[in-house]
Specification:
The complex is a heterodimer of chains A (about 110) and B (about 900). By secondary structure, chain A is mostly helical. Chain A is built from 4 helices and 2 strands, in the order H-H-H-E-E-H. The longest helix of chain A is centred in the last third of the chain and has 20 residues. Classes of the chains: A mainly alpha (about 110), B alpha+beta (about 900).
Chain lengths: ~110, ~900
Amino acid sequence: MKGFIGEFEELVLLTIATLGDDAYGVSIREQIEKRANRTISIGALHSTISRLEDKGYLTSFLGGATAERGGRKKRYFELTADAKSALTAMKELRESLWNESQVNLGLSK
Amino acid sequence: MSSKPTYPPQLAKWLLNQFCKAEYTEDILGDMEEEFILNTNEYSSFKAKTQYWKDSLSLLFSYALVKRKKNHSIHPFSKTQNNIPMLKNYFKVAFRSLKKQPLFTIINILGLSAGMSIGLLFIAMISFINTYDDFHENKKQLYRVVSKTDDKVRTRLYASAPAPLARILKDNHAGFGETTRINKSLYGEAEFLGKRIPLNGLFVDDNFLDVFTFELLEGDKSLKNPHGILITESYATKLFSDKDPIGQTISLGNMGEYIVNGILKDVPNNSHMWFEALLPYQTLINLTEKGKIYTNLNDWKYFDDNYTYMLLPEKTNIEALSTTLNQIGEDNYKRIDQFAASFKIQHLDEVPLGSDTRNELGTAWGTEIYFISVLVTLLILLPACFNYANISTAKALHRAKEIGMRKVVGGVKKQIFLQFLLETIIISLISLIGAFFIFSMIRYEFQALLTYGKSLDFQITPTIIIYAIAFASSTGIMAGIFPAIHFARIKPITALKKTAKSHVLGKVSIQKTLLVVQFALSFGFIMGVVVILDQYRTILNYDLGFEQENLLDIPLQNADSELVRASLDKLAAVQQVSMSSDILGVNSNNRIWLPNKEDSMSVTQMFIDHNYLKNLEVDLVAGSSFEQSLASNEQFTIVNEDFILKKGFSNPNQAIGEFVKINDSTDLRIIGVVKNFHFQNLSQKIDPLILRNNPNNFYYANVKIISNDVSRTITEIELEWNKLSDQKFEAQFFSDEIDEAFDIFSTLLKIFGFLGFLAITVSCLGLLGMVVFSTQSRAKEVGIRKVMGAPITSITYLLTKDFFKLMIIGSLISIPISYILYSVIISRQNVYSDGIGIMPVVTSLMILMILGLLTVSSETWKVASSNPTDTLRHE
């Protein structure tokens, strides 16, 4: 294992996964804001992304120049195989915990 | 909601740009801007701006930015950079560019080698001095007692301490380890089976060899037997040749006879004390009691000859010792009127350097050696560094494309800077080889110039090599820092468009300034050599007031003066024989104090016979000389004019018949007054002189010879000598001795000559480099001018005049400074000098101009006479 994945880090990784080819700074932030209803600054997001890169869960590449945003390039992020297996392991762990839960966790009913 | 386009707040944007200057944060800045546009569409422009501010501030300190900066900065151990291939590339490019410009490379290497060789000399010297006394096993605990005296007129620092001090320390203040006394009045001649060899040694306490580490080769090292002597190996070889020295008896003149008890290994060069023999301290006490040796072991005011060394146990309370020493000082000096002294201990480490004490036991270098060595090194090395800086910034055009390319593919300033610095360091390391070569050629010459040169060792040791490499690297940094900054600043676009200027002699450039400084320095050195040569010539032709030709001085060496005179007078070639106690100007510095009620006076005293003044053709202004063999001569004296003047007589005749009080029991009557003459070298003013007559004090015969065959005459004299004495015949011409003794400028001349030669060579090399470069870059212009009909001379003039101007400016700055500096030096060395005068200035200016113009025009003429078709076809 390349290190522990925090809750917010997991969120960022999954968001990047949902965004597919269009995962860059602004879009990731917007997604998180929309889905999780959490406001985060660009700086905080990029810091988390940098940590994830350090841990080897993310790679990035620069896209082409864009007309908006002052002609500046976008940096796109991708999950690595490590990230995928880590996320899977995490999901399995959660599912088994859910399944074996003795308390009724369902809110409906 | 406003419909007009809004922009992010300028200040925040600028701040961000400052922090994220490089391109590697482009995406983050883009994100920020996109965010902002989205926000302006959604909220008010104020809110968007506030958000932008918030975001940018949080970004400034975010991990994202810190991380990216770290990844992109270049530092030696950066893991994210692949440094090795880059370094390889730097080396490769450095060697290629050195090879491509062989002339400039050679100029730079020659200059730096010359400059660094001087630095190496001082490195070798100082690092050797730093090993002083390292061979003593107890070095860490070894101290000596130094004294500071105050006689109400001035304070003095002595390396020595009065003899009673050690006894008091030993007897009354135990607990401070071993105290050992040393007295250096052991000198004279040792005799063994008719062979006599001068001996220099020390009287030492019997614990001396336990305190200090001087290895015993054979025999007994206890210094208990007052008739036993220890001698060094090389002295033993000199005196005994092949015989076994142990147990032999040697005679030390009136000090008596001693048995050789042991042989010591020679005192290493890096010992601050030096001796050929050791005698027990008890012997000294016995000898002084019998009056066989003059030294003083009881007087608290006697600071000569006596030294006190201490071997302190570990964890000694140094402060307690200091207090004890102070107390001893106070107790013993309160009885003495008008005099005080205090004592201090000094670690052996501080002895060779940085103590500046008088009356040293051996070699001491003083602190100024650091200052002098740094100054002299810089004087030669800086011009060499200037050369490098000048030539390489001028060459910028050749490298501009490379730098442009490097920057375009991602090289940052820091990398370019490091690359060029590395290149300079490579050059200086190559030059270091040359410097070692020059160093090995000049080291012995240099050693011979130094007063204490013999106690040095200029071997190349690993330590020196390490220092030398560090020195070369720092030279490289010194020479390379300006060009490296210059190159790092080049803008890639201008560099690639070939518009980067090569800056040769722009308006007021660093290059111009450096050239001016070089010329000023060169002028200073040239003037030094010229001035000293001029003074040297003046001194050689100076009228010293006496005749020195055809006089042969023969040391009497215990032969009877009257017998020598009688036998030499028989020879036809000998015109006249006189006797004297000293050789005038060479060792005639026997000063005595004449006591007087009001003012005591220091006079130089010399013993002469009745022929002496005639032989030297010194005229009497009043009275008469000594009569031949008159017993009452001993009560007479002849004085010089200065003596009369200082004594307050208005004219010489008045002084005749007056008495001079020599000491309480002796009064001498003045029978004659001689004209002033220089009985000391010219760095001293003519002082009062008294001439006395007493055959017991004659040590030299002065023989005036008139002969066409001098060598035959000398052989005849030697034959006569051999009948009288079993000593070896020695003789020297007075004029030679005088030349040697008055030769106060020859060392200076050698030093200035050598340094001047180096400085001028370095400067001329640099000048040549600049000229070659500037003319090459103006080749096309020259071509066009020639096509338009300009003659070679006017083109040469055009190319030369800029340099000529710089030479003039440099000289003008240097003239007043050099003039004042050399005036001071000259007036110290020769109080009878007329000053420098205008001629040396003009001569040095001419020399500099001729050298400079030759260097410059050799190149400019070549370019000016080149065929314009060759240069214009270049494109």
